Amino acid sequence: VQLVESGGGLVQPGRSLRLSCAASGFTFGTFTMAWFRQAPGKDREFVAAVSWSGRNTNYADSVTGRFTISRDNAGNTVYLQMNSLRPEDTAIYYCARGTASRSKSLYDYDYWGQGTQVTVSS
User: Fold this and answer.
1) Which residues, at least 6 apart from 64, have a Cβ–Cβ distance to it below 8 Å?
2) Secondary structure (H, E, C), 46-109
3) What per-residue string of b and e applies to 65-80 under the rule 16 or more CB within 10 Å gives b?
4) What residues have CB less than 8 Å from 40, skipping those under 6 apart?
């Protein structure tokens, strides 16, 4: 199993960024996928999850209405569209494979990518 994130970078507040996670080594279209993030000195926290079909999603309250998770099962990729970014969104963002449907608990995820840094600053 391999998960490789990309798309992070430095962006000004209010702007947008799209993260991608390329998956390989398993049957991608049968697993929940999610994004988590970890800011310096803080615990890793749930951001968003999407069901295997892509029809059902789950979001942290802090990103609801600003972030959108989606997936392309044909291309084995999960995305996180981040709009109206704020300085408090600054963190390393991780893609993860789920073992329970759209869970918010990191303990329900068994494989993780290496992370991609997102910095929101003027």
Assistant:
1) none
2) EEEEECCCCCCEEECCCCCCCEEEEEECCCCEEEEEECCCCHHHCEEEEEEEECCCCCCCHHHE
3) eebbbebebeebbbbb
4) none
DSSP secondary-structure letter at 112? Answer: E
Instruction: Let me know if 8 is exposed, middle or buried by CB neighbors in 10 A (0-12, 13-18, 19+).
Output: middle
Calpha distance 45→37 (Å, rounded): 5
List pLDDT tens digits, range 29-85. Answer: 999 999 999 999 999 999 999 999 999 999 999 999 999 999 999 999 999 999 999
Strands 116-120 and 57-59: unpaired
